[in-house]
Amino acid sequence: MIVAVLMWGVAKAQTDSTAVEEISVAGKQEKSELVSISEREQARPRAKVGVVLSGGGAKGMAHIGVLKVLEKAGIPIDVVTGTSIGSIVGGLYAIGYNSHSLDSMARAQDWTFVITDKENLRNQSLLDRKKQNTYLFSTGFTFGKRDLNAGGLIKGKNLAELFQKLFVGYTDSLDFTKDLQIPFACVATNIMDNSEVVFHSGKLPQAIRASMSIPAAFAPVRIGDMVLVDGGLKNNYPVDVAREMGADVVIGVTLNGKPKTAEDITGTMKIVGQIIDVNCINKYAENKAITDLWMNVDPHGYSTASFTAEAVDSLIRYGEEEAMRHWDQIIALKQLIGIDDSFRPTIHHPLRPDAMTERQHVTSFTFENMTPQAERFLRQKFHLNKVDSIDAKMEQELTTSMRMDLFYQTAECQLVPDGDGVRVVLLAGNRKSMQLYGGVRYDTEEYAAVQLGLDIPLKTAIPVETDLTLRLGKRLMARGEITIHPRFFTRPTFSYTFRDNDVDVYTYGHLDYNIRYSHSQAELLPINLYLRHFNLQMGLRWDYFDYRNKLGSESAVRVRLDNDHFFSYRTRLSYNSEDSWYFPTRGARFNAEYAYFTNDFAKLDIFDAEGNKVDKAKGMSDVSADWRMSFTLGSRFTIQPMLYGRLLFGSVVPPIFGNTIGGGWFGHYLEQQMPFAGIGNMEYVESQFVAAQLQAQQRMGDNNYLVLRVAAGQHSYKVKELFDHHAMFGIQGAYYYNTPFGPIGATLGYSNHTKETYLFLNLGYEF
Questions:
Q1: Which pTM was predicted?
Q2: Could you list the active site residues?
């Protein structure tokens, strides 16, 4: 039930931070000029026109299409009221976003991001990005304090942050009837006494956030003694509010599809949707009766959760088409309003695209609900004592650091006008006691697996985070990590990992043998440097392998696996600018690592055939790298060439560290595993291996992908003999559907190495 409500909640009202960089509110001078023009128009003897926009989730995109037609017809708009998505569209229109500005903004959204509490990927480290693309859910807990942001599966931090930017210049307490370019009001529901709350004043982003707070999905908004949720529960079509604000003529827009029959109400989502629809008809008939021109957009084919690019485009068009069907009635309204065809209302100009990329002068920084240590951390990390200006990018970096480095549940960066600049207010919520992650996956090789993560920040002067991870499945893994977050980019880290592995090894496509062993690993990374797309790690690792049994063919007997430990010195460099973790269309990915393996910090032991230690040799050098780039042709087709390989040097190569290939990901079963198209299971190859892969990716619709991969590889015992042998070739085709729960799909492949076809099914994120 909660999941169903959440799916409905996804729909009620969203906007996305990416549009903020393109469109913002007009400057103060433009605002005053528009208001003066509007005042002169209203002084003329004509009727006051109100526009009422109902709630309806994604279907509310149709409101933009209706506004386009009203502007085209020359209808003045003197009052705007709305509920839920109607309050968002109406509120933005009231401060100066015309219909074309709203259209541009709506089409630029990543609607699935803003209704989550995830961090903006552009401001996260590679490790944090990996977590976000591994786990199904993430939620923070605060013990010992009342969390006033609780009460919903989504706290709405991204919504609040986005509204702060979209309504920049209108975030202080205002009178909505006097301080906006068009008088505005929106409706919320106070669940303390089940009363309707109409906002005519206050903080505009907060009022709109309250109007669209779906119970159980989004955390309610608390103002004084009120606990506010979605206004649709009391008044989803607030014509009466517009009348009370002085509207003589009302144009109203609702978003109802065809009436449902009993046969239509099947399945959980449809049942929940019907319950919601029934409970949102309060005052609907009365308000419809006092509407002068009522337009209802039938969102046929789309629901409250339809936020794909195709749906947004169609819904805006549906709104235009519905309004055009009423064109004669709209023109006829001019007589009722008291205007003729020569009348030209004020249509606000598109807002300046560069407004949010401009830097604003900073007069001071203020820190609220923060410890002195947290304030000092931010001042030193961002050199705030020397900062004299701020832009949208820096705002995002500050709030991200407050949540990621300082572990605050919520964080806001508010710009308050102050003389010739702005005062930057950094407002923090409660500090998290822990952050819980959860993920689940299924595939035809390992079947079901579950992974849980727990981040626990320590209350120290310099932020310190402990990270616990548990994986349950065929491969058991438990990991503990301590990371120090100093005031610069590096994050020194110490970790310990225990793995209980059950690994099947294939030879030429056939199961050869199985190895069961325990693997303990401790790693110290004094250098762990994070930049936007880069991560550089340098440190020391200890590995210990305890083999329980080895079952299989005669070749398994020839593979000597004795309990042993290793010390290795390591340097790793990672770069990732890809726009998507699983289906990138632009950007590049590069990983390179050098490791030197020893038994005693200097050399490796040599054993005879009976397993007796007889001598020592130089350590083994491990050089590996992979490089992939994405090139998009048109808007849906992407080509991705990739080069990768791993070269092992030394007279002794411990079998457990030998080269392995197969599967679709790097390091899936074993850390050194490399993918190879056409080989589905893990196979050992010689100590020198290089390969090239070309992938063609075709997107169909918004989330369906067809993928074709071809690969060629060479392997040998010595580098100089790499190309003396026949090359391996492989090909595979795949279909995947990219869901919020991870990729779901199937892969079919063949290679000349295995001479076998294989089918692999995957459901969920890879871990």
A1: 0.71
A2: 84, 230
